[in-house]
Design a protein that fits this description.
The structure holds two protein chains of two kinds.
Chain A: H1 11-18, H2 32-40, E1 43-47, H3 51-61, E2 67-71, H4 96-107, E3 112-116, H5 125-129, E4 133-137, H6 141-153, E5 171-177, E6 180-186, H7 209-213, H8 219-234, H9 245-262, H10 269-277, H11 284-303, E7 312-316, E8 322-326, E9 341-345, H12 351-360, E10 367-373, E11 376-379, H13 384-391, H14 398-401, E12 407-416, E13 423-433, H15 437-447
Parallel strand pairs in A: 1-2, 1-4, 2-3, 4-5, 9-13
Antiparallel strand pairs in A: 5-6, 6-7, 7-8, 10-11, 10-12, 12-13
Chain B: H1 3-7, H2 9-25, E1 27-31, H3 35-47, E2 51-55, H4 80-91, E3 96-100, H5 104-110, E4 120-124, H6 128-141, E5 144-151, E6 154-160, E7 163-166, H7 185-192, H8 201-204, H9 209-223, H10 232-244, H11 252-259, H12 262-265, H13 272-279, H14 291-304, H15 324-355, H16 365-373, E8 379-382, H17 386-391, H18 395-403, H19 408-427, H20 438-455, H21 465-474, H22 480-499, E9 508-512, E10 519-521
Parallel strand pairs in B: 1-2, 1-4, 2-3, 4-5
Antiparallel strand pairs in B: 5-6, 6-9, 7-8, 9-10
Helix pairs in contact in B: 3-4, 3-22, 7-9, 9-11, 10-11, 14-15, 15-16, 18-19, 19-20, 20-21
Classes of the chains: A alpha/beta, B alpha/beta.
InterPro entries (chain A): E2-binding, ThiF/MoeB/HesA, ThiF_NAD_FAD-bd, Ub_act_enz_dom_a_sf, Uba3_N, Ubiquitin-activating_enz, UBQ-activ_enz_E1_Cys_AS
EC number (chain A): 6.2.1.64
Family (chain A): Belongs to the ubiquitin-activating E1 family. UBA3 subfamily.
């Protein structure tokens, strides 16, 4: 059954992209043009170059994408090597994003991968708008939440509150723990965003301090006592560093002492690391499964070459094998992917006053706010140079700064939440100036 | 050198040193190292399996560069097995990697005894005829076999072994073994030392819920003719009774007691899964019985006698609000009972071993202990011969799958994959393999599928035209992402089989890459 026609590198992928089919997406137009567009025009961002990220870069490169970028702030550790197949022992200590990009480019010719060794918050919001689709290979709720809020901030609604298609920034998100994992598609404004279904990720359980201090019962209690209470008592002012083996060893031996005192079994060095660093067990096979599902869905969203996942896949291999597709629904009142929080203002309100208002707004509770309008920085908290440049805007009326537009979308970034639970986020606000709106509405009616 | 342990840290937290040792002892054979095979093996090499042997007779072609990460430009024209082997070796030098440049189909025909040297064989991209032949060989030699296949947007994974028994099944959610509704004498005595009506508020709110529930269940039984709550109304009354004992509304231990009160009502005795295992004919042991079944036989005796209908006690308790002292002592009470039960079991195992003329010490203490701890969670997996499934699938099941809205596509893909193999046997190419012959192939595949369904006794069922079209569109392509998914599934199952932890999948897994409504077909 040998193929007699001269082969091309895309021998297998061509079958999917060059041939028409009936079980495909509405936008699918089979042909070489589609294949070449994916190759030349589509830009994909991969967030995370860890267990999922390594697989994703390889899978996307083999799915015809040639313009990839990857962002990750971490360096390679020995404990990555059981699954992050792009890294070798000699790479330990190097930035993950850089090594991962290099290895995939070495083996898959034609693909260009630009790497970013930094935090996701370090990139300006506009950076994320440059991509057609964002694929998330993360292990933290906070990071997912941040990227989700960024992608949703690009979403624009028309006057009937319907999402405008060209402003939708699709995301594909994967996650694993042990033998279990999930893959999902997020089309902001169309399918639920990360925040709409935040309840899928229950917050991490923390032990009450009185249990740690007074009635420890388990090995984990002894470890957390040493880590959270004893450390600060013994090292005034010195911050605990979970990556410093000496620090970890100290916590371990203190936990052992405490466990012996109370007759509690089970404190080991490995458990100490697990509890203190909140280590999530991870294996190569599950990462491979979830990444493959994510890369396949990315290809489908971009090309329409098959139906897409609607919209959440779970995989569980603990007891037998269970896969399930669930169609979650949007939260109509979602602060992140909805049409935006409505803020009604007098035309005289200054930018400073506006920023103060957001701090007290019950749905927002935003502090350290930076404001952008149509890509222009109205006020930036950081870096200092930008702060200085934009500071003079604070005393000007927002209405003026917005070119006297009576209603429009303003993007703000800052820290949301109260006390210890604050986290970076980006929010979209629908600013309406009182007494000015009727005018535009009439204008629009006239134009229609 | 501590380094390997550090490298494997994230997986040791799942399967422990014992599971890792089993992996490091395993020797694995891979048939065909296209992307499906390469990706399967990659996940296992990273995890540190003992040795791998790659069998593939083909040379690397340009088309392989578009779907296989283990080959690159410089590999074209060279042995694929050699190239893939070299790359995999680079991933983990602790693994012994070798290759054999030979077509698996030839090896199956000419050298069936070749396979008996391995712990496990992973057969990828084999057509039906070779699958059936290899399956017979491995079943005869009692070698674990796993099939993996990627085909366009679909895939198949199937385990084949006569019997796989699991002691450490490690389920995510399993009812704690607390015996609240039937406390043994020491637990009852321990509960008696605690006074629920204490006026000391600190003591009151640090009484663990186990004690609360044991005492409350006894109190209830004393006033209800020795019976525990059974009706909905009674269960509610029982909870109210607990609530009435609270001094303040914020006593966490009483809240926990109310939440856990269902543990008092849960039925006594063993569950249906375990019942099935102890009733299995294998629990009639002889000199050929495996350690597992000898221990099951001992367990059966234990349940019928000392256990009074229950398994040996697991011996651990979940964390709960409590003073340190009560909690630690409670834990010791459970551990002591578990130890007593273990000693009885150990004696029974020894006696049985003697009876079947085996060394009474041939099953280690540690294994018996682990068996006792997991007695409620044992699992036995058995797999039909592939040939039997193919020739006579469980017909009503197949019919049901084909007409079901959710898994109809997966079942259709299963039939079409088999039809594609028949097609290939007849026409010497796969449907849609070459451009320009699509229309003819579609109608040929359709009649092949209809013929197959007739042979399987599913006359009434039809496969949709769209799906037949789709199968021809795939043209036997091996897409990298599908291979990575299928290989990921296969490697996860291999790990479960080798470590003998967690429960491997049953039936035939059909990956449906169209809308991800994949399905396990129990045929």
């Amino acid at each position: 059954m040998a193929d007699s026609i001269p082969q091309s590198r895309s021998r297998d992928l061509d079958k999917l992209l060059l041939r028409p089919g009936n079980l495909v997406g509405p936008t699918f137009e089979a042909g070489a043009q589609l294949r070449d567009d994916i190759k030349e025009c589509v830009r994909v961002l991969v967030i995370g170059a860890g267990g999922l990220g390594c697989e994703l870069l390889k899978d996307l490169a083999f799915s015809g994408f040639q313009n990839l970028e990857v962002i990750d702030m971490d360096r390679i550790e020995v404990t990555n090597l059981n699954r992050q197949f792009l890294f070798r022992l000699g790479d330990v200590g190097k930035p993950k994003a850089e090594v991962a990009a290099k290895r995939v480019m070495e083996r898959v010719s034609g693909v260009a991968i630009k790497s970013h060794f930094c935090r996701i918050e370090d990139k300006p919001i506009s950076f994320y708008n440059d991509f057609h689709i964002i694929v998330l290979g993360l292990d933290s709720i906070e990071a997912r939440s941040y990227i989700n809020s960024v992608a949703c901030s690009f979403l624009e609604y028309d006057s009937d509150d319907n999402p405008q298609e060209e402003s939708i920034k699709p995301m594909v998100d994967g996650g694993t723990e042990g033998f279990k994992g999930h893959a999902r598609i997020i089309m902001p404004g169309v399918t639920p965003c990360f925040e709409c279904t935040i309840w899928l990720f229950p917050p991490q359980v923390k032990f009450p301090l009185c249990t740690l201090a007074e009635t420890p019962r388990t090995a984990a209690h002894c470890i957390e006592y040493a880590h959270l209470i004893k450390w600060d008592e013994a090292h005034s002012g010195k911050t605990f560093d979970p990556d410093d083996p000496e620090h970890m060893q100290w916590v371990y031996s203190e936990a052992v002492k405490r466990a012996e005192l109370f007759g509690i079994p089970g404190v080991t060095y490995s458990l100490t690391q697990g509890v203190v660093k909140n280590i999530i067990p991870a294996i190569a096979s599950t990462n491979a499964i979830i990444s493959a599902a994510c890369a396949l869905e990315t290809l489908k969203v971009v090309s329409g070459c098959s139906k897409t996942l609607t919209n959440y896949l779970t995989y569980n291999g603990v007891e037998g094998l269970h896969t399930k597709v669930t169609e979650f629904v949007r939260d109509k009142d979602c602060l992140v992917c909805g049409p935006g929080v409505l803020i009604e203002l007098e035309a005289s309100v200054t930018l400073k006053k506006f920023i103060d208002l957001l701090e007290d707004h019950p749905k927002l509770l935003l502090t350290r706010v930076s404001v952008t309008y149509r890509g222009k920085n109205l006020y930036m908290q950081a870096p200092p140079v930008l702060e200085e440049m934009t500071r003079s805007n604070l005393d000007l009326p927002l209405f003026e700064l917005m070119g006297k537009t009576p209603r429009d979308i303003v993007h703000v970034t800052g820290a949301a939440g109260k006390g210890d639970t604050k986290q970076s986020c980006s929010r979209k606000l629908r600013v309406v100036f009182k007494g000015m709106v009727g005018v535009t509405d009439m204008d629009m009616a006239g134009g229609a | 050198m501590a380094e390997p342990k550090v490298k494997y840290d994230r997986q040791l937290r799942i399967w422990g040193e014992k599971g890792q040792a089993a992996l490091e002892k395993a020797s694995i054979c891979l048939l065909n190292c296209g992307p499906t095979g390469s990706e399967t093996l990659k996940n296992l090499v990273l995890g540190g399996v003992g040795s791998i042997t790659i069998v593939d007779g083909s040379k690397v072609e340009v088309g392989d560069l578009g779907n296989n990460f283990m080959v690159d430009e410089s590999s074209v024209g060279q042995s694929k097995a050699e190239c893939v082997c070299a790359f995999l070796q680079e991933l983990n030098d602790a693994v012994k990697a070798k290759f054999i440049e030979e077509h698996p189909e030839e090896l199956i025909e000419t050298n069936p005894s070749f396979f008996s040297q391995f712990t496990l064989v992973i057969a990828t991209q084999l057509v039906e005829d070779s699958m059936v032949k290899l399956d017979r060989i491995c079943r005869e030699a009692n070698i674990i076999l796993i099939f993996a296949r990627s085909y366009g947007l679909m895939g198949l994974v199937r385990i084949s072994v006569k019997e796989h028994t699991v002691i450490e099944s490690k389920p995510d959610h399993f009812l704690d073994d607390l015996r609240l509704n039937d406390p043994w004498p020491e637990l009852r005595r321990f509960a008696e030392t605690v006074d629920l009506n204490t006026t000391d508020a600190v003591v009151h709110k640090h009484t663990p819920y186990i004690i609360i529930l044991v005492k409350m269940a006894e109190e209830w039984a004393n006033t209800h003719g020795g019976k525990l709550p059974s009706t909905r109304e009674e269960k509610k009354q029982f909870k109210d009774l607990i609530k009435s004992k609270m001094i303040t509304v914020d006593e966490e231990n009483y809240k926990e007691a109310m939440e856990a009160s269902f543990k008092v009502f849960s039925p006594q005795g063993i569950g249906p899964n375990l019942q099935k295992i102890i009733n299995d004919s294998c629990s009639e042991v002889d000199s050929n019985s495996s350690d597992f079944w000898v221990m099951v036989a001992a367990l059966k005796e234990f349940i019928a006698s000392e256990g009074g209908g229950e398994t040996p006690l697991e011996g651990s308790i979940p964390d709960m609000t409590s003073s340190t002292e009560l909690y630690v002592n409670l834990q010791k009470t459970y551990q002591a009972k578990a130890e007593t039960d273990f000693l009885v079991m150990e004696q029974r195992v020894k006696n049985l071993l003697k009876k079947i003329n085996r060394d009474p010490a041939s099953i280690s203490k540690a294994n018996i202990k682990s068996f006792c701890r997991n007695a409620r969670k044992l699992a036995v997996c058995r797999y039909r011969l592939v040939e039997d499934e193919f020739n006579s699938p469980v017909q009503p099941e197949l019919q049901k799958y084909l007409t079901d809205e959710d898994c109809g596509t997966a079942a259709g893909l299963y039939i079409l994959l088999r039809a594609a193999d028949r097609f290939a046997a007849n026409y010497n190419k796969f449907p849609g393999q070459f451009d320009g012959e699509m229309d003819e192939d579609i109608s040929r595949l359709k009649s092949t599928a209809v013929g197959l369904l007739n042979d399987l006794g599913c006359n009434g069922s039809a496969i949709s035209e769209d799906l037949i079209n789709e199968m021809c569109r795939y043209g036997a392509s091996e897409l990298h992402v599908v291979a990575a998914f299928v290989g990921g599934v296969a490697s996860q199952e291999v790990i479960k089989l080798i470590t003998r932890q967690f429960i491997p999948m049953s039936g035939t897994f059909i990956f449906n890459g169209i809308d991800h409504k994949s399905q396990l077909l129990l045929l």
